[in-house]
Amino acid sequence: MQAAQQPGQLLEALLGAGGDGDDAQGFTSAALQEFLHKVDVRREEVLMTLYGAVAERYMAEQEEGEEGGAAAPQGPSAPPEVSAGDAAFSAALARLGEQAELAVEDGGAAAALAALAAQHAAVLQAARDTSAIAASVRVAAELQHRLADFDAAVAAGAYSEAAWTAVELQKAVAAVPGSDDMAAAVAARLEPLQQHLQQAVFSCLSFDPATHLPTLLPSAPPGGTPDVAAAAAAASVAATVAALAEVWRALRVLGLLPQTLQQLAAAFVEHCVQPILVAEHDPNRSLSDSPAGSVASSNLSRATAAGGGRGGNSVERQLYKALKALAEQVLGGDAELAEQLGALLWPPLAAAYVNTKLRPIQPQSDAEVELYSRKSSLGAKLEQKAVALHLLPADKEGPITRHIKRALNLFLNARRNRFICAARDLLLSAATQEAVTVGVPQRAGTAVAGGPKPSRALFGAPARGQQQQQAASSGSSGLEDEEPLLACGEYAISKAAQGAVSLMRDALAEAVRSGNTALAQAMCGAVVDVAASVVALPPPAAAAGRDGAAVPPHPAAAGGKGEQPQPLLLPYPAALRHNDCHYVYQALCSLPYQFSPRLQQLVHRNVNFVNPALRVRLAGHECLQAMVRYQQAELLGLVQELSQFAGLDSDGRAGLHCRKTVQQLLAAFRRLGSVLRPVLAPGVLVQVSGELIQAVCSQIMEDIMALPDISVDESEQIPQILEPLTSGVHDAVLPAPPGPASGAGGAAAELASAMGGVRLDDLHAALHERTPAVMKLRELCELLDIRMVEIRRRWQDGRLQAIGFSADEVSHLVGALFEDTDLRRDFLRLLAEEQLL
């Protein structure tokens, strides 16, 4: 408090503000001398206090630095702050000097005060300079201390600690200005450490010239008895492993790890991988097991070593031993180090392995595929072992495995494409226009007593026992519930379809002969591709008949339209394509059983071609149905000409036109029959013909029943006009069976009475069953020419109902034929009552 009051008292005395009375001394010489003495004393006190504060702060920071340990200085310490009183005192002196110069003309006292203020400011600046010098000295001492710690860590072999110390020294030197000498000292010590660390990895590592495996050098030569020597060697190797771990940590701190790992990978490939790969093909060099005491592991699976080189040690086994020693001993089992090394090591290792081991045995024929698959599998297993050693990532496919798959796919795709190209050339050639007969004739006359009718047994749904027997004989398990496209009997196919099936058999025979799973799968794919080609490549546009000449459309199709229909809408091309698809379908269903059990062993126990078979079958069915719809539309176009039934008159011109139309219909059916009989199987011929006949006769029935009134002339002429159609439409499609007076006997008679291996009687019976409209039309023609009493009798006997007439149809017919009489009203009332029932 006294020190704070002295500047104020001094100021009052100097300015004569001590009092207002006569006793006030004022600005006298004695008073000035006294106050100058007090200023000198105060200056000495301030300086002593300042130097004491600097010394105390320096000692305190020095003690904190020693207790703090390894914390590096970030820059020069700030000088100790001058006390607020000293700063205020210096400012007061400066202002006092300025005021004294203005107030007093005599400059002696003012000059002394100004000098005193300047001296005080100089003292403060000296204090600041002293503090800065002290801070620099302290930083230099700390850096020197850390440099000594660095030297001690290097001498003790604590390389990771030395690396951290060097990094901290570099940061501290960069933060302190004017420390070039210290930076040079740090660099002079750090560069030898870096060189030593990089050389330390290879000074602890060597490659055995006999096994080409990496081995660790012992830190001290063993001695004494064998047991003692073995224990000493193990301890020495453990010490080497620990020293290497310290080296790897130091290299990671100094940022030299990628460079060192790159050098290690190059040395491993040069001194280990390449000699092992070359030793397999060099008769003067051999692969031997690791010597006693070697750190290389022999824990490789028996599958990897199977089929290896001489002495049971394959290249893959030796490479695995080398990689295991490298990962577990040289890298100390560090997974992170192994991943970084694997990223640098595995690409050149895989390239050398592929060029030396895999490319020379790349398959060129089917016989080499199995050998390549067996030997290349060792490379894939080696990569699996590398994943376990953390040298390869588990979520990515290795380069050796990728090369193996690529090489196999190239060869297998080439083999597969060979069959695809052959099928393409075959399906686009003239072989699609050449027909051959296939199928096994089935004799319908051998039906057992009590069985179904021949027509139903041939063309209807078979019984369950027959379904099971057919499934067992045809080998189409799983397809027994499918309705067959073709019934039994002979049918025609193109030579292209026959060749496509031969290609499928050749592909599967090649698969079974090779004994290789990959090739067998590729050949099964080739079978599917050939089947897809059959669907995707229809026959050429210029379809030809069996004699090679183009088959023109029947008269119904060529009747003045001005445009030719598409080839597959004509009977012969559509029927032939339908048969081709069915033939391929049957082959696809039976091929797996023809090559069992070997095909199932190579591919899968349930291998089948059901899906492509169904696609092929559907394509053939749609083609046949498109042709049937087109022919039906053409035939119904002719039926429209019969609408002039309502205009039949006595002069017969309309009747002549209708008779001509009926003859055209019969000619169209004969044309269809002559074209389809040599091509389609008997069952399909009956199915197609029955559908067309049924459509034509049903339309004629509807036209007649639509007449509101039928005159006497019309009722007489309509049966006469339609009689050739109702009696001869079946014979127009199917040949009539020979009569008993034909004179043929034995095998010749049986052959003459059959078509496609099926008796003509059975075919006619089946066709009659599929065309109930013919019988109904024939009955309608009879109803037009008989009395109403006979019509009523037939209705009451149930004959008309059995044929398919309804009460409404009979009622309309009676109303159109007969006049309104009591008998007609009574019959119509009877029909109306039955309609209500």
From TrEMBL:
Residues 660-723, 771-828 form the ZW10 C-terminal helical domain. Residues 61-84, 284-312, 444-481, 543-564 are annotated as: Disordered. Residues 570-636 form the Centromere/kinetochore protein zw10 C-terminal domain. GO terms for biological process: endoplasmic reticulum to Golgi vesicle-mediated transport; mitotic spindle assembly checkpoint signaling. Residues 242-427 form the Centromere/kinetochore protein zw10 middle domain. InterPro entries: Zw10/DSL1_C_sf, ZW10_C, ZW10_C_2, Zw10_middle. GO terms for cellular component: cytoplasm; RZZ complex. Transmembrane segments: none annotated. Residues 285-301 have a biased composition (Polar residues). Residues 69-84, 460-478 have a biased composition (Low complexity). This is Centromere kinetochore zw10-like protein. It comes from Micractinium conductrix. The gene is g909.
